Amino acid sequence: MLVKTEVLLATDDAIRRAANLLRLGRLVAFPTETVYGLGADADNPQAVQALFAAKGRPADHPVIVHLAEASQIDDWATDIPLAAHRLADAFWPGPLTMILHRGRRASDLVTGGLGTVGLRVPAHSVARQLLQSFGGAIAAPSANRFGRVSPTSAAHVYDELAGRIDLVLDGGECQVGLESTIVDLSSDCPAVLRPGGISVESLAAVLAGALRGATAGAPRVSGSLESHYAPRARVELVAQCELAAQAERLSRQGRKVAVLARPGQICPETAGLTIIPVPADDEGLARVLYAALRQVDALGCDWVLVALPNEQGIGAAIADRLRKAAGPRAG
After folding, report:
1. 3 state DSSP class of 65
2. What are the per-10-residue average pLDDT scores of the chain (331 residues)?
3. Which of 51, 222, 235, 271 gets the most CB atoms within 10 Å of its CB?
4. 125-134 and 12-23 helices, crossing angle to 10°
5. Quick one: which of 168, 111, 109, 105 has its CA closest to 137?
6. DSSP letter at 147?
């Protein structure tokens, strides 16, 4: 059943309204520093089920539980290692999700039936006010249809989920622009399961040791599918030196092609080719990447070319998202 979706500036009154809706088991989208999240009361099974339905999210895909304070970690996890407290002290509030052994409060719905739970304390002022006003934990994956490009503005959320959720809190554009880093601390050796807003280098410095990557036995987490974060247009990863030539080849084949071009990346003036300028620095590119991929679809392009950045710092997260966006798609 369709509902009327409101979009409200994130004033104090609007945040209180959002908190009341969450208490009633309704769905509210809100900004975080990473992307907009689609929130439901993490303690309410019916609300979490409604969240999965609104996104079209498979039931075995866990969602991240957002907390107001790091002190609430004991409510949701058990057997918490010292490494988790060190990371929380260093990076919470912030774009870091920790995978820990689930506590009794973490339901199968939230965890996707796993023995672990993902926890995060967001840094965005609106998210923090909402959590404090609500007084509980909020289950919140990205506020978009499953597998699609994550939203970094209230308008993106409305475009994706209008009629499926009750309220979108408009807190402006997200400052990081990519999802949180996910670190698995449920085994003896910490592992990065998804690069994000906190770099692997920063994590290793706090833990005084290297982190491994995801292995075959790692817990399922958001964004772990081979294809994810994908626009309708086909995404092709091209070496920077090949951008111009590949754009011209596809355009001559009658494709409507877009290129995400950093300063100095020269592309030919060819019919059917659209240049979408993106920032030269990786932090700037991360901030606008999803908006640029959405622009590709809005322009009706059927192909988008982009070069991978150097995979250091947040460049590793950008490369991860682009590889997933370019991944093989069902059907």
Report:
1. strand
2. 92 98 98 98 98 93 96 96 96 98 96 96 98 98 93 97 98 97 93 94 90 70 67 94 89 92 75 88 97 96 95 95 86 49
3. 51
4. 50
5. 105
6. T
- pTM of this prediction? 0.94
Long-range CB contact pairs, 55-60, < 8 A, 24+ = 55/141, 55/144, 55/145, 55/146, 55/161, 56/145, 56/146, 57/141, 57/146, 58/146, 59/109, 59/112, 59/113, 60/112, 60/113, 60/220
Structure tokens at 110: 């939230």
**3-state DSSP helix/strand/coil % of the chain, to nearest 5:** 35, 20, 45
Question: Which structure tokens are listed for 29?
Answer: 């989208």
pLDDT for residue 2: 81
3-state secondary structure of 64: strand
Give the CA distances from residue 241 to residues 221, 245, 261, in Å, rounded to whole numbers and listed in that order.
Answer: 34, 8, 12
Listed in order, strand segments (DSSP E) in 223-313 are: 234-237, 257-261, 273-277, 303-306
Instruction: Please report, in angstroms and rounded to a whole number, the separation of the first and last CA atoms in the chain.
Output: 28
| Distance, CA of 59 to chain centre | 18
Q: Please count the residues of the chain.
A: 331
